[in-house]
Amino acid sequence: MNLKPIIFTCLFFLGNPLFAQKFFNKAVLTAEIQLNNMVAKETNPSVIPRSLFNDGSFKSVDMYDWTSGFFAGNLWYGYELSENNNLKQEAIKWTKALEPIKFYTENHDLGFMAYCSFGNAYRLTKETYYKDVLIEAAKSLATRYNPTVKAIKSWNDFPAADSVNIYNFPVIIDNMMNLELLFFASRESGNPYFKDIAIAHANTTIKHHFREDYSTYHVVCYDTLTAKPIVKETNQGYAHESAWARGQAWGLYGFTVCYRETKDPQYLQQAEKIAQFIINHPNLPKDGVPYWDYHVNQPNYTPVFNYQPNQYPVIPRDASAAAITSSALFELSKYSKESAQLYEDFAIKILKSLSKKQYLAKPQTNHHFILKHSVGSLPHNKEVNVPLVYADYYYLEALLRYQALK
Prior knowledge:
three-stranded antiparallel sheet; mainly alpha; 13 helices; 406 residues; globular; 11 strands
């Protein structure tokens, strides 16, 4: 491996007064090393890094997994932070390999899959090819919109926790993250339909997904004849009425994007209320990196799975939820009139926590992922206390947003 570009990058950052904070310099250099090592080891863009299995072995996916676009996005962000041209060339390769997803209609995740990869490619290059793929992907995502429910169907079905009922129109809070693709497609194509259905989905989510304290249900299943919710449950959280940490982060980020794209004050209010829930939650650890669920082990919350607390004497944190929250708060701080400094300070606090050795991997460890200690789905015993490619994505995005401030 040629270390000259890495040494030059290190000297550049350390010698540049604009980037005097040590944590930022270290984070960028670590990310550059990890990404370069990952692409040196994983050379086939159809074998996409996602995480680790519980036994510590490498976990990859194909292009139709919901996480498929994040690694290409990481490479674009890594290039943007470090100006390492090798990362740019790898980003192009890994992005173009995903082109067939533009016709995928089997779930709602086109926003994650396409916008995190092709969206960053278009933002940084302005090449029409990337824009055309994104607009086609938005058309595919739009096929899942139901005008009666006024929402985009997430999964094709949802087996209820009672192991009896199966619901055919589930909507998950994660779906708020896919609206950015639709806003983009309307802006770039001139077709208002994409924006219209994004707004309708956001409004339906506000109406049915949130409790009075602005915590969110993970899954809401609808009757497609009446548009009324049939059931509200969790899938990856602790209990049906608990606050799954990453779900809170998805909601915060999604409604911040909605305000950016529409300037509708109800979305700003929603984002700020969610932010306040997170920041002021009594069970949020002091470093700002949440437990995988805000109510795990709390009284009056009944787990929906065979939870064995003795198996987790130390409650797992979720660095992915923290990274998403930090990135979202950086953006929200630009829009808030009363709490801008609070959001910015809290975003920086989280980012600095994630940049410490507890969470930031030592170079050439962690199977070349950047962050440690995330949780995919503890109820399914999948991806518990492991790196996750999307944790890295939003961490890199948060670093870029921090850089923009400084």
